[in-house]
Structures are given as structure tokens and as C-alpha cells.
Amino acid sequence: MTTAVTADAEQLRHLAADIAREAGDLALRRRTAGVLLAATKTTLADIVTEADRDVEDLIRTRLSAERPGDGFLGEESGAAETSTGITWVVDPIDGTVNYAYGIPAYNVSIAAVQGSADPDTWVGLAGAVHAPVLGELFTASRGGGAWLGAQRLAVTATNPAGALLATGFGYDPSTHDGDLATIRQVMPLARDLRRMGAAALDLAYVAAGRLDGYFERGLKPWDFAAGALLVAEAGGVVTRLDTASARPMLIAAGADLHARLSAVLDDQI
Ligand code: LIP
User: Angle at which helices 199-208 and 221-233 pack, to 10 degrees?
Assistant: First the structure.
């Protein structure tokens, strides 16, 4: 039986930041030494490297030592139920394809949630997104705000020039046509579009006001657990449409743009 606990979100934020910093530094060292492909997963394009596995192992080992009994859900090593009421949701290297190609837009994403690793029921408590090549560590705690180092983050307000949006595509080529059709429907709201290939970084940039909004279908819980809390704590809104499907649509933006994006994307579902 899970004993619900009220964890100090700030303590969890500091722990997430500390581990994300160490894990990101390991990822960068391994990238510099050369990346070894370990396997492919759902499609040939869905890769996992030896570094993904080793970075997740470091994170899992640190969390087990610091927070015994907490649950865990990681992209590469599966799940463990919580006995404390807290679960960690981890993407060891978000932006894996960028990482494999040597593109700097990759990060370590670590989130602590109250409850199980179910995004429809969890309550985000703390998160850290570390982009080691870019030298940036984004953090947030529930009620404690979103931060880039000591700089407090805030989402943008509506821009008459249109929204700078980001999105992404899944690893299954059969989904690309539908996703392109969605982009066509959204473009009247946009001034331009970015496709960085790392969901947690897209979300961190919405929180930091570097993007006005982000939407993507088919993300996994570990892709957005930390980034969604960053956006919420930066004054933004994050929702998911079509959650009963295999490819829910995540939408993140300031309140006004979120409402306009949701109206268009809801019609697409
Ligand atoms: C990736 C996401 C990205 C999405 C990719 C993939 P991964 O996560 O960050 O936004 O477009 O399809 O899901 O696989 O690099 O952890």
C-alpha cells in the first residue's frame, strides 16, 4: 500500500538538479569519446545508445541511495512502484537522435511526481532539465517557480507578429503525414516553426520565453514530466488532448496562445 507523503518540493528540486548535472556531464563525456549504438526499439529510427543506458543507470543508482522506496519510470530501464508516494520520471538523454549525430540540443530530464508515473493522475513536484553542451540547467518546484540558474522564468504574452512555435515528429514514418497536416492547420497562428528534436528542451524554452508555444503528438511521460512543470511554474498552461489514444497531443504555452492552439488542435483530433 502506498503511504502518501508530503515531500519538500524544494529538496526534491535540489536533488533533481544535482543528479541531472552529474548525469549530463557523463552524457557529454561519453559523446566526446564517441557514441555506440546499443539497439533500435520501436522502429529503425528509434535508437538507444550505450550512453542512454549508462546515464539512466547513474540516475537510478543515485536516486535509490538518496530516496529509497521512491518509485521510478525510466525510458531505458522500466518501472518500479513507489512505497513513499513519490515517483521519479526520467529521460536519461532526451534528444537521442541529436545526441547520436552530435547536435548539441540534447538534455537529461528528471522529474519527481506525487503518485504513480501516470501523467493523467500525477502531481508534478520538482523537475530538472540539463543541457550539458549548452551549459544550461533548468529547474522547477511546485509553488517555487521555474528557474535557469538564478534567473526566474516566465512564458511569453501574445505577440501580434504571431507565435514562435515548436513541434516534433515520432519515430514511426507512417505518422508523419498526419503530423504535417496538423502543422498546416496550426501555421496561421505562427510567425515561424522550430523543430529541435528534444521535447524537454522545447518545454524548457517555452518556460524561458524563448518559444511562445509547443505542441507534439505521441510523447512519452519521461519526455515531458519535468518540462511540463517548468512551463506551469513559469505561468504557462500544459494540457494533453486525446489521452485515450496511443498518441496524445501535448500543448504548452501561455494561457491565451494555449487556448487558441487547443481550439485548432482539438479539431484535428
Ligand atoms: C524524443 C523527443 C522529441 C520527439 C522524438 C523523441 P527521445 O525523445 O524529445 O521531441 O520528437 O520523437 O520522442 O527519444 O530522444 O528521448
Answer: 0
| Strands of the 71-74 sheet, one edge to the other | 78-80, 71-74, 86-94, 107-114, 123-131, 136-141, 145-148, 151-152
Probe target for ligand 1 pocket from 223, 249, 250, 251, with the most ligand atoms within 8 Å of CB: 223
Alpha-carbon gap, residue 32 to 25, rounded angstroms? 11
pLDDT in tens, 152-162: 999 999 888 99
Binding pocket residue ranges, ligand 1, CB within 6 Å = 75, 91, 94-96, 168-171, 197-199, 216, 223
Residue 100 per-residue DSSP state? H
pLDDT greater at residue 37 or residue 259: 259
Rounded percentage of the chain residues whose pLDDT exceeds 90: 86
Is the pTM above the cut of 0.85?
yes
Residue 36 has which C-alpha cell? Answer: 555506440
- Domains of the chain (ranges; CATH) run 3-152 (3.30.540.10), 163-266 (3.40.190.80)
For cell 507565435, name the residue.
163
Substitution site in 46, 53, 94, 193 for ligand 1 pocket (most atoms within 8 Å of beta carbon): 94
- For the stretch 161-219, pLDDT in tens is 999 999 999 999 999 999 999 999 999 999 999 999 999 999 999 999 999 999 999 99
Minimum-distance ligand 1 atom for the alpha carbon of 91: 16
Residues 6+ away with beta carbon under 8 Å from 95: 103, 105, 106, 107, 196, 197, 198, 200, 201
**73 secondary structure, DSSP code:** E
